[in-house]
Design brief:
By secondary structure, the chain is mainly beta. It has a single domain, classed as Distorted Sandwich (Beta-galactosidase, Chain A, domain 5), CATH 2.70.98. It contains 1 helix and 21 strands. It is globular, with a radius of gyration of 17 Å.
């Protein structure tokens, strides 16, 4: 599976010199792309938890679906169309800062900010994205993890931890919940009886979460072939402030965390 996903992504992105980094920790395996700092595969005991588009993205695609892309330095749209959706980190080349067999630290630097993204396997998939304002002026930003979790039968999937209820995923879903403040920890569960598992998502330093699936008729940026929308659900922890942006003072930073674990159902 990791080889197949690597070929898919490398086919479309080879021109920019992207590198796929394989991580392992016991029964856990992960594949990370330096283009966008995207996790494109995560499996436990050979069982894949993420959905990845089977077809390579088209040239100049407004958004590439699949895996766990990063939305940064903004989440959502800031204009009227799809060309600016979810920022630009997801299509930018990251630099490898540190790497080992089970961990990699990547960075993306702009004139005003430094983004560091750590991916680690340790009894689960841990992601940490840190934004630092390196300028002399306030820096507005927002960000999110946008994971596409693979499911067996969308009609039987329930997501717990959002709005304090168990939500079924039927047809189009776009449910955004904002918290009163930044929460040090928030937990969600994707119950998937068709695959006999529960995916646990733990978010840290998030200000809200978005639950999303495009359904069969809702237009969304990028390409989702055929009925592939039935095979994933996105639970997206985000960090946003008033009027969409957090404002970092000079030298200040913000860290967004997410950990993903697989639990088999009895």
């Amino acid at each position: 599976m990791r080889v197949q996903l690597s070929i898919i992504v490398a086919f479309a992105l080879a021109a920019v010199g992207a590198e796929q980094i394989a991580l392992t920790n016991g029964a856990e395996t992960c594949l990370v792309d330096t283009l966008g700092g995207r996790v494109i595969s995560y499996s436990v005991d050979g069982e894949e938890l993420l959905w990845q588009n089977k077809f390579p993205p088209r040239a100049n695609e407004p958004w590439v679906h699949g895996g766990i892309p990063l939305a940064w330095p903004w989440f959502g749209r800031i204009g009227g169309g799809d060309s600016d959706i979810h920022g630009y980190a997801w299509r930018s080349a990251f630099r490898i800062v540190e790497r080992s067999g089970s961990r990699v630290l990547l960075s993306l630097e702009t004139e005003s900010a430094l983004l560091k993204c750590e991916v680690e396997l340790s009894n689960g998939l841990s992601l940490c994205a840190e934004t630092t304002n390196k300028s002399e002026f306030p820096y507005p930003m927002s960000m999110a993890f946008h994971p596409y979790f693979r499911v067996g039968d969308l009609d039987r999937v329930f997501v717990e931890g959002i709005d304090g209820v168990s939500l079924s995923i039927t047809n189009a879903v776009d449910r955004c919940v904002k918290f009163d403040g930044t929460l040090p920890e928030r937990n969600y569960r994707i119950n998937d009886p068709a695959l006999g598992r529960t995916i646990c998502i733990q978010a840290g330093n998030s200000t809200g979460v978005n639950l999303w699936n495009p359904g069969p008729k809702v237009k969304c940026p990028g390409t989702i072939p055929g009925d592939a929308w039935r095979r994933f659900v996105a639970v997206e922890p985000f960090a946003m402030g008033t009027n969409r942006f957090l404002v970092l003072k000079p030298g200040a930073n913000h860290i967004l965390r997410m950990k993903v674990r697989n639990m088999r159902l009895n």
